[in-house]
Design goal:
Blueprint (H helix, E strand, L loop, with lengths): L9 E2 L17 E2 L64 E3 L17 E3 L17 E3 L6 E5 L7 E5 L2 H11 L5
Parallel strand pairs: 1-2, 3-4, 4-5
Antiparallel strand pairs: 6-7
Length: 178
């Protein structure tokens, strides 16, 4: 169960926050139906936030905490959720198409009716979710991710995890709000 929202939290229901940059921030707000497309949210904590129906398509959420967040019906198309905490999150009916969930924590996440299409789940264990009654289509369990890689880096393409890529992700997450 999540914490009740207090009257001193921000009410940003339906807000358009596309391309916003809020790395390593703690957000305790009502963001139902908000659009956070292409947002830079690495290390941000949305713990206990109300984000029902929010649009996180193409958002950068590496190392973010969405623990206990209410995310029913939210969209995470091609979102970067590597190392994110989705512990006890309400993801009922959420859509995660091509979401990068490598190393994400899904302990007790509620996934009833969620659609996970081609999620990248290397080092993520969906068996720890509280409810696996979700539609899972073609999960990618190998050590790949989509990013600009190569020498020189080209457009988004399938890359394989390397020591350098993993260290860069750890550096990105080192200042995460928890």
């Amino acid at each position: 169960m999540g914490e009740p929202m207090s009257q001193d939290c921000a009410d940003l229901r339906g807000a358009a926050l596309d391309f916003v940059q809020m790395q390593r921030t703690s957000v305790y707000a009502q963001l139902q139906g908000a659009s956070l497309t292409f947002a830079q949210l690495q290390g941000t904590s949305f713990a206990f936030a109300h984000l029902e129906g929010a649009n996180f398509n193409y958002a950068q959420l590496q190392g973010a905490s969405l623990a206990f967040a209410q995310l029913q019906g939210a969209s995470f198309k091609e979102s970067q959720l590597q190392g994110a905490s989705l512990d006890s999150a309400g993801l009922q009916g959420a859509t995660l198409v091509n979401a990068q969930l490598q190393g994400a924590s899904l302990k007790q996440a509620q996934l009833q009716g969620a659609q996970l299409q081609r999620p990248m789940v290397w080092r993520a264990d969906p068996r720890t979710a509280g409810n696996l009654n979700a539609k899972l289509v073609k999960p990618i369990t190998s050590r790949v991710f989509f990013a600009k890689c190569g020498d020189p880096p080209a457009g988004h393409q399938k890359c394989e995890w390397s020591v350098a890529a993993f260290e860069a992700l750890k550096e990105l997450m080192s200042g995460a709000v928890r």
